[in-house]
Amino acid sequence: MASLQIAVDTPFCTKKEFLRRTGWSSASLERAIKAGEIPIMPKKGANNSVLINMVKMFESAVGQQV
What we know:
This protein is mainly α. Helix content is 41%, strand content 9%. It is globular, with a radius of gyration of 13 Å.
């Protein structure tokens, strides 16, 4: 039986980095975040950057395997 091994190079990334990696549009990312489809870290202050939780993204992808 084959096993899947995923290496996450960083646990979190900024919206800008996520857009670079995925090719999504900024508007699509904003909609997905507001819909709760993209897990983000809670912000500690209004001036803090939004950080996307890449570990949860990979966990979700693994759970969707066929």
